[in-house]
Structures are given as structure tokens and as C-alpha cells.
Design brief:
There is one protein chain. This protein has 110 residues and is an all-alpha fold. The protein folds into two domains: 45 residues, no CATH class; 51 residues, no CATH class. It has seven helices and no strands. Helix 1 crosses helix 2 and helix 4 crosses helix 5.
Length: 110
């Protein structure tokens, strides 16, 4: 289905659909339901990779501080943007493993 056709089914403009797709605009629960119906999938389809352990309300103060420092840095923003452009989940996991290895205390002792 083209973006044009999907936008028409949802009753939004092509540009608005692109904003949803690119994360520029948030999509509300009602619109998400309409999107699922238009695509013929259950709403849960959009949450297949959702990890409840990542719930921001359950983060420790230390985790929240680390995120703020990371996103507050130029390199952090660039890394986050580049990482989010990687579609392959396996490659994302490998990059995470690499950064964990490079950032471990053991690697700094060598």
C-alpha cells in the first residue's frame, strides 16, 4: 500500500503520514487503532519489540542522569541518530555488545 493510499484511508494528508512515520509528530491511541485497521494488523503489532523493562518511569536516578549526559553531548546525539537509522535488529544488538565491551572497566585496564 502506498503512503498516499494509507493517508487517504486514515483521512490525513500524505505529509502528516510522513510526520508520523518519521517520528516528527506523535500518533495518538485512536489514530494508532485506525492505522492498525487500515493495515489489517492488530494494534499489538506496533509493540512487538516493546520491552516493559525500558519503561521510563522505572528508571533509576543514575540511569536518568546517564541518559541526560549522553543526549546532552554532541556525540551522543549523533550516535543516537545513527543508531536509530539501523533497521537490522541483529546489527543493533552487535553494536550494543561492542559498546558494552569497549566501555567496560576491563577494556580500560589493557
Amino acid at each position: 500500500m502506498s503512503q498516499q493510499a494509507l493517508a487517504a484511508k486514515l483521512g490525513v494528508t500524505f505529509q502528516q503520514l510522513q510526520k508520523y512515520e518519521n517520528g516528527v509528530n506523535r500518533i495518538g491511541a485512536g489514530r494508532l487503532y485506525e492505522l492498525a485497521r487500515a493495515l489489517g494488523v492488530p494494534v499489538g503489532y506496533f509493540y512487538e519489540d516493546f520491552d516493559p523493562a525500558v519503561d521510563p518511569s522505572k528508571r533509576s536516578e543514575e540511569e536518568t542522569q546517564a541518559i541526560s549526559v549522553f543526549i546532552g553531548s554532541r556525540e551522543g546525539v549523533q550516535l543516537a541518530q545513527a543508531f536509530n537509522r539501523i533497521d537490522d535488529a541483529k546489527i543493533r544488538r552487535h553494536i550494543l555488545q561492542l559498546t558494552n565491551t569497549l566501555g567496560s572497566d576491563d577494556s580500560q585496564d589493557a
